[in-house]
Write a structure and sequence with these properties.
Blueprint: E1 4-9, H1 13-24, H2 26-33, E2 37-43, E3 59-61, H3 64-68, E4 75-78, H4 85-95, E5 99-102, H5 105-122, E6 126-127, H6 138-145, E7 151-157, H7 160-172, H8 176-185, H9 194-197, H10 200-214, E8 224-225, H11 233-241, E9 244-254, E10 259-269, E11 281-288, E12 292-299, H12 303-320, E13 351-361, H13 366-376, E14 381-386, E15 395-402, E16 405-406, H14 407-418, E17 423-432
Parallel strand pairs: 1-2, 1-4, 2-3, 4-5, 5-6, 8-10, 10-17
Antiparallel strand pairs: 7-9, 7-11, 9-10, 11-12, 13-15, 13-16, 13-17, 14-15
Helix pairs in contact: 1-12, 4-5, 5-10, 7-8, 13-14
Bound molecules: NADPH dihydro-nicotinamide-adenine-dinucleotide phosphate and L-homoserine.
The site of NADPH dihydro-nicotinamide-adenine-dinucleotide phosphate has 27 residues, from α1.
Length: about 450
């Protein structure tokens, strides 16, 4: 049987990795897919640039539409990133009746609803395993492996760059900017690295995970998002003293009132496996009602780990080429006409425990004022540490862990604490999750 011809859009980190893996493992891949899979055409912006892969046998162009419109191309693999050109190219590929594989989480999170509807109407597939958690096959695990479960919640370290930065800062005391520059050199970071450090990339991925877990439409604009750029070495150290690690988590939870969708730094008890996921590694914890908690771990970014997911999607597409489109695994795990309109909860309605750090005057009555405000709001304190006053310092750091409380009440209490004359500046608040069975 003839090989399936792939048109590749983008020859950067992931594009280069995809060419290499397809070439190196060609025989093994053919044994799995039942047909060879070869890249015949590829597009990049700068055709003079030296690439990290062997381009022999690939027709190159700087016009990606020439690839998408080429009748010889069976499957288009979109690896250019962004949502402008990529959206137009993917839409055009679908209109041309071509299956699409993409690693572009921004595209899927923001325009997936419309692209999937278009693909459904044309009877083609849009596969996106590489869009979430790099090489970890977590989309397939949730969409297929956990199909018998009612998913209750999931929580994941889903940005490799952010986890690499937090790990290097904690373990080696390295500077934030210096580690970010290294992540960029290694090809982990997004074209705009504020997407990594401000949680936008994680929010794109959480949008996708929540849809396939709960059967809801993609709703990127409803996610509460906080990044890691304000995490200080002090907070990392105090968290360790209290027996916790700070991780940047994406959390989606189904409650009776609606769905929580949030990305923020989180204290996790250090004994949890996920608290020990370091460097560029990602992990996603998924709790199903039948299976209980399950954990998926692996490289969250980088050329070949991501290519591993892209190639797996290509194999899936090739295997499904002859299948009846009605009988394929639905894009968002649930049948398109069975997606549920469950409300997304505003952050003010979310309940978590909290780590609070404040700079307080070291005199009698100050702590009593703070604890009274918390008690008035119904917030109970689990632990409290007052550090020694540094020589010359006017204030001492006070660190508290609270029990679970609704965010709205915590916001009000923090406002009142910050208004006390004895408290210097803003109160640092980091949410705490225990990630146990419930
Ligand atoms: P790179 O910046 O390394 O590569 C992008 C490629 O696209 C480059 O080859 C670039 O050409 C080409 N390109 C950009 N715009 C155009 C255009 N208009 N026409 C033709 N070619 C174009 O990005 P990555 O490989 O890192 O990322 C690609 C996608 O994969 C993104 O969506 C990203 O979010 C996603 N992803 C990335 C991961 C990673 O670890 N890097 C992991 C998981 C997903 P040129 O080289 O000539 O500039
Ligand atoms: N920039 C992303 C990350 C790439 O660091 O996780 C993988 O999606």
């Amino acid at each position: 049987m003839n090989s399936v011809k792939v048109g590749l859009l983008g020859l950067g980190t992931v594009g280069g990795g995809t060419v290499s893996v397809l070439k190196r493992n060609a025989k093994e891949i053919e044994r799995r897919a039942g047909r060879g899979i070869v890249v015949t055409h590829a597009a990049a912006r700068d055709l003079r640039r030296v690439r990290n892969c062997d381009l022999a046998g690939i027709q190159l162009t700087d016009d990606p539409f020439a690839v998408v419109n080429n009748p010889d191309v069976d499957v288009v693999v979109e690896l250019i990133g962004g949502t402008l050109a990529a959206r137009e190219l993917v839409s055009k590929a679908i209109a041309n009746g071509k299956h699409v594989v993409t690693a572009n989480k921004a595209l899927i999170a923001k325009h997936g609803n419309e692209l999937f509807a278009q693909a459904q109407a044309k009877g083609v597939m849009v596969a996106f395993e590489a869009a979430v958690a790099g090489g970890i096959p977590v989309i397939k695990a949730i969409r297929e492996g956990l199909a018998g479960n009612r998913i209750e919640w999931l929580a994941g370290i889903i940005n490799g760059t952010g986890n690499f930065i937090l790990s290097e800062m904690r373990d080696k005391g390295r500077d934030f900017a210096d580690v970010l520059a290294e992540a960029q050199r290694l090809g982990y970071a997004e074209a705009d690295p504020t997407f990594d450090v401000e949680g936008i990339d994680a929010a794109h991925k959480l949008t996708i995970l929540a849809s396939i877990a709960f059967g809801i439409p993609l709703q990127f604009d409803r996610i509460y998002t906080e990044g890691i750029s304000k995490i200080t070495a002090e907070d990392v150290n105090y968290a360790e003293e209290l027996g916790y690690r700070i991780k940047h988590l994406g959390i989606a939870r189904r409650t009776e009132q609606g769905v929580e969708l949030r990305v923020h730094p989180t204290l996790i008890p250090y004994r949890r496996l996920i608290a020990n996921v370091d460097g560029v590694m990602n992990a996603v914890l998924v709790k199903g009602d039948a299976v209980g908690p399950t954990l998926y771990y692996g490289a969250g970014a980088g050329a070949e780990p991501t290519a591993s997911a892209v190639v797996a999607d290509l194999v899936d597409v090739v295997r499904a080429l002859t299948a009846d489109p009605e009988n394929r695994v639905p894009h968002l795990a649930f049948q398109p006409d069975a997606l549920a309109d469950i409300p997304i909860l505003p952050m003010s309605e979310v309940e978590t425990a909290y780590y609070l750090r404040m700079e307080a005057e070291d005199r009698p009555g100050v702590l009593a004022d703070v604890t009274r405000i918390l008690a008035d709001a119904g917030i109970s304190i689990e632990a409290i540490i007052q550090k020694e006053q540094a020589p010359e310092a006017q204030h001492v750091p006070v660190i508290m862990l609270t029990h679970r409380m609704r965010e709205r009440q915590m916001n009000e209490a923090i406002q009142r604490i910050e208004a006390l004359g004895s408290i210097n500046g803003a109160v640092t608040r980091i949410r705490v999750e225990y990630l146990n069975k419930n």
